[in-house]
Specification:
It contains three helices and eight strands; from the N terminus they run αβββββααβββ. Strands 1, 2, 3, 4, 5, 6, 7 and 8 form an eight-stranded antiparallel beta sheet that branches. The structure holds a DNA duplex (13 and 13 nucleotides).
Length: 211
DNA sequence: GCGCCGATTGGCT
DNA sequence: GCCAATCGGCGCC
């Protein structure tokens, strides 16, 4: 029986590639969570790639492995979830192959389903701030350490095929919130999306300097 | 609208 | 003791 393209879960092979490639291609895909017994879903509009043991910003830099980041060294297609600044959960999808410590951080979503649940979980914030950051989207989707090390396919939080993106609809910019190798252009976002963690700068969104 | 700062946990020096 | 892949509140243009 033929499955609808929209409803198909991404195959593990999708993640068996460099994090940079996966990060770009995750844009437009839909994350569906049933964590906590409630449905919440969003379209991915912003990601960040962490390349592996030779990326100074990766938690697995120089193969540093500990109790917190063990899932990062696991097989492609599993979740790596960690606590940031002692307060916020951040969700990654492991890429390429086990042992490389390569992953993609989900940074922002456009809410598409379960808005009432997201609003309740997030408190009173405007809708464009429900999932506009890695910690915020985890709170909105009910993601916690429970998801760490769990397979994406068939698990409580899955990524589905979205509509194909038009060529040139995304852009690569420097990574956010880190001090090492932050300038590497490994943050990907849908150009012009109002759902990202940062407002668009430059181009038509900013007045040109006086001549 | 922008920038600074504190909250709070865990792993490392 | 220090720092971190963050967030939200507050003060000041």
């Amino acid at each position: 029986m033929k499955q609808s393209r929209r409803a198909a879960t991404l195959p593990v092979a999708f993640f068996r590639r460099p994090a940079e490639t996966v990060a770009a291609e995750l844009l437009g895909k839909v994350v569906v969570s049933t964590a906590g017994g409630e449905l919440a879903a969003g379209r991915i509009v912003e990601t960040e790639a962490y390349l592996g043991y030779d990326d100074p910003a990766s938690h697995g830099y120089l193969h540093r492995r500990n109790a917190r980041n063990a899932a990062l060294f696991g097989p492609p297609g599993i979740w790596y979830v960690y606590l940031s600044y002692g307060m916020h959960w951040c969700s990654n999808l492991v890429c390429q192959r086990a042992g490389l410590a390569s992953a993609v951080l989900l940074r922002a979503l456009e809410p598409v389903d379960g808005l009432a649940t997201m609003r309740r979980r997030r408190g009173s914030v405007p809708d464009h701030e429900l999932c506009s950051g890695p910690g915020k989207l985890c709170q909105a989707l009910g993601i916690t350490r429970d998801l760490d090390g769990v397979a994406m396919a068939g698990g409580p939080v899955m990524v589905l095929q979205g509509e194909p993106l038009a060529p040139g609809s995304f852009s690569a910019t420097p990574r956010i919130g880190i001090t090492k190798a932050a300038d590497w252009p490994l943050r990907f976002h849908l150009v012009g999306s109002p759902w990202t963690s940062r407002k668009e700068k430059g181009g038509r969104f900013r007045r040109s300097p006086a001549p």
